[in-house]
Design a protein that fits this description.
The protein is of the alpha+beta class. It is built from 21 helices and 10 strands. The structure holds flavin-adenine dinucleotide.
Length: about 600
């Protein structure tokens, strides 16, 4: 790459959170239509693996067949799927971030039990060592984890320390001879505990402010014991147990990174975990849509396949739209992360440093995606049940388990409440540090509120230009609400959680809607993958986003401002959310549904 192009690449690559204040061009985003041949082959082989090894055994997964989960994980290891993100020198395939997302996406769709086992092993079970381990630790453990010879688990949560992860009571004390740490404590909700060979354990050394990470081999003789399998609402064949450490000796060389670095490791592992969890919620949606439309085409009521009814078409259109939007945003962010990792490696960072910093840069997007896509999956599964009617409520159809399995995604990897607040909190911090200039644009919006509005009708002849104009105005809504909240509450903003949550919902809708609009625009320009339908989905999503944003902004404004200031902001809100040409939502849904119904699957 020439120096000139390198500089341009760096300049053009938006930082995390900058999507709010800088325009992204359609040709600059990566979409699923940009998958390389290698990525498509990877996707197809993962799909084939799932259709062969997982989907036919769905019933066994619903009956707590933990051994089957272990067996499938071992087979995934034999195929190399557990090592896609692991560098080749440690026995993995060393693939880029987009490919690792893709594998996580397609392997996770058939049952939440495998999605969880895969995510816990490859993400939080392996990543802390690949990213924070020293050379010896990586050489010793990562090749075993990459091939599935060993399985990993991650022990952060405790009975008294969930969302407040740094408050754990598990203790690590250096032995008198200085050779071992002796760990005592109780961990809870540990995925893969029942069959893992190794744990990443977080414990506090003496009275340190922050916890420390340790690699702990699973050995009963070393004071490690387990509770019974938890009785759960869903993911029935994912092993989840309490783990007790009773004078467990851990060699000092198994301390990860440095003393007191555990909280940082835990949080960074979770950033990767969050975006991967979003990916893991995509194929699950596609499979629900596929099942729902097939059922709707077959099921006859009133002498008519129910797929012909507007009420069912409305559901199918909304489900497909959410899945499309989730894909658009997940792969857009994944490519940003991949590019930033390459950029840092070109600058001389090691793979470890580059990956850590690359993902951390987009921590805001990771939280946004975790929240949005996990909630889309829940809605999708819920409507899947509704389309199946009474049969949807029966455990004999896949909708019932999809609905139960979906529920956990809103809880683990940081609850959706915590992730919502984190997204805005991190953005404000970035603004304070000068990494993203929010203050200038927020001031410009404040000035605009007191200025005279333009009554010109813009030229909306270009495809999606009205939608992009709306998007630019929705960004002003965020800046108006978040800007006044920061001004009013200052450092106390954190304690005004409902305002933060409202601002977060605005932020989430903007990112998701923009990703869909840019994907549809890019594909329209190159005439790929049903562009007319993609445009319809982007428009439909935006229509809902405008409503959500209006509602949330009103909540925020009514609590932040009073009197004239409140009236001015509400007038601004009206102006910023006004359509020149209101889309015909029913026509959009009909168009999308017609495609889904005629193809008898999720066709995008
Ligand atoms: C099936 C399953 C598998 C899991 N796997 C693992 C694993 O492998 N390893 C691991 O370490 N952990 C794991 N977990 C734990 C999981 O990460 C936690 O359950 C999660 O972080 C929430 O913690 P908690 O359950 O203690 O809930 P709490 O933190 O008690 O939260 C309860 C409610 O209060 C809200 N809340 C909490 N704090 C705040 C706040 N400051 N402001 C506003 N609202 C707040 C939450 O959003 C939530 O709605 C798993 C959990 C489950 C159920």
């Amino acid at each position: 790459m020439s120096i000139q192009t390198q500089t341009e690449t760096k300049k053009d690559l938006l930082r995390g959170g900058q999507f709010l204040v800088k325009e992204t061009k359609a040709e600059d985003i990566f979409t699923p239509e940009d998958f390389s041949e290698e990525q498509i082959m990877m996707r197809d082989s993962v799909k084939e693996f799932v259709d062969r090894e997982i989907w036919p055994y769905k019933e066994r997964f619903e009956h707590k067949d933990y051994a089957l989960t272990e067996e499938v994980m071992r087979k995934a290891g034999e195929m190399g799927l557990l090592g896609v993100a692991v560098p080749e020198e440690y026995g993995g395939l060393g693939m880029g971030f987009v490919t690792t997302m893709l594998v996580c996406d397609y392997i996770s769709g058939a049952t939440g039990s495998i999605a969880t086992a895969f995510g816990a092993h490859t993400g939080i079970g392996t990543m802390p060592i690949t990213l924070y381990g020293n050379e010896e630790q990586r050489k010793k453990y990562v090749p075993k984890l990459a091939t599935g010879e060993w399985f990993g688990a991650y022990c952060l949560t405790e009975p008294g320390a969930g969302s407040d992860a740094n408050s754990g009571k598990t203790k690590a004390i250096l032995s008198d001879d200085g050779k071992n740490y002796v760990i005592n404590g109780q961990k809870m909700w540990i995925s893969n505990a029942g069959f893992c060979d190794m744990f990443i354990v977080f414990a506090r050394i003496e009275d340190d402010k922050n916890i420390t990470g340790f690699i702990v081999e699973n050995n009963k003789e070393n004071g490690i014991s387990m509770g019974e399998e938890e009785k759960k609402l869903g993911i029935h064949s994912s092993s989840t147990r309490q783990v007790f450490f009773n004078d467990t000796k851990v060699p000092v060389e198994n301390l990860l990174a440095g003393r007191g670095e555990g909280f940082k490791i835990a949080m960074n592992a979770l950033n990767v975990g969050r975006i991967k969890l979003a990916a893991a919620c995509l194929e699950a949606q596609r499979r629900v849509i596929d099942g729902a439309v097939k059922y709707a085409n077959d099921r006859i009521q009133f002498n008519t396949p129910i797929a012909k009814f507007g009420a069912i078409q409305q559901k199918l259109a909304e489900m497909a739209t959410d899945a499309f939007v989730g894909e658009s945003a997940s792969y857009r962010a994944a490519k940003n992360i991949e590019d930033r990792i390459s950029m840092r490696m070109e600058d001389g960072n090691t793979h470890q440093e580059a990956e850590l910093k690359g993902v951390e840069e987009y921590a805001i997007e990771c939280s946004i995606l975790k929240v949005a896509v996990s909630e889309d999956l829940q809605d999708c599964a819920d409507e899947g049940i509704q389309i199946f009617g009474g049969m949807g409520f029966s455990a004999d159809t896949p909708m019932e388990s999809a609905w139960r399995d979906a529920r956990i995604s809103r809880i683990y990897e940081g609850t959706n409440e915590i992730n919502r607040m984190l997204a805005v909190g991190m953005l404000v911090k970035k603004a304070m540090k000068g990494h993203v200039d929010l203050l200038g644009p927020a001031q410009a919006v404040a000035n605009e509120l007191t200025g005279i509005p333009s009554f010109d009708i813009p030229d909306f002849s270009e495809i999606l230009s009205e939608e992009k104009d709306m998007l630019a105005r929705l960004k002003k809504v965020f800046l108006m609400v978040a800007g006044s909240a920061v001004q009013k509450y200052g450092t106390e903003l954190e304690s005004h959680q409902q305002v933060l949550l409202a601002a977060s919902d605005i932020l989430i809708e903007i990112y998701m809607a923009e990703s869909a609009i840019l994907r549809a625009e890019k594909n329209t320009k190159r005439n790929m993958n049903n562009p007319d339908h993609q445009v319809a989905m982007a428009q439909l999503y935006l229509y809902h986003a405008v409503d959500t944003i209006t509602e949330k902004a009103k909540e925020g404004i009514s609590s932040i401002a009073e009197g004239d200031e409140q009236r001015m902001m509400l007038m601004g809100l009206k102006r910023f959310t006004k359509y020149t040409n209101l889309p015909n939502v029913i026509a959009l849904r009909n168009k999308i549904a017609e495609k889904v119904v005629s193809e008898n699957t999720y066709p995008f």
